[in-house]
Amino acid sequence: MHPLYHARSSARKYGGVAGDYLSLHRWMDQTKAHIADARHRMILHNSFGIFLGEQLFGVSIGRESDGKEIAVRPVLEQHVIEDLGYIPSVSECFAGMPVEEWMSKGRAQRRGTGTEDGQQDWKH
Fold it and tell me: What is the residue extent of each domain of the chain?
């Protein structure tokens, strides 16, 4: 969904006008500029991205239209739920991504939580 439509949805839910929320939704969708398909959501559309946004914008913002203070986290949570249906963890977002050698400069990487006999399974 386009950031403007998310902002309109936020205005319906929390009051004010779409412009009051547009910066939050534009920030959440900024990754579209680098990955132009649904995979862009794996970067910020998760619990980490929501808390990162709260750190960046603060716990609350003042709506420009009327000055009312609005909590940031629920607005960002709403964005993710509108796009994905729920709020995934970062580990869920990257669960299907294989660990590639280039990700660790060629060092051995732990592939999983361990084998059936309790020994670690390492990729070299």
Answer: 3-93, 97-124
Cα–Cα distance measured from residue 17 to residue 8, given in angstroms and rounded to the nearest whole number: 7
What is the H or E stretch that residue 77 is in? helix 72-84
Q: In the numeric block, which tokens belong to residue 4?
A: 């403007």
**pTM, 2 dp:** 0.80
Measured CA to CA, the distance from residue 2 to residue 24 in angstroms comes to 12
The set of residues, in sequence order, having a beta carbon less than 8 Å from that of 96 and lying 6+ positions away, is none
- List per-residue pLDDT tens for the chain, 124 residues long: 899 999 999 999 999 999 999 999 999 999 999 999 998 999 999 999 999 999 999 999 999 999 999 999 999 999 999 999 999 999 999 898 898 888 887 665 555 544 444 444 545 4
From the number of C-beta atoms within 10 Å of its C-beta (0-12, 13-18, 19+), residue 7 rates as buried
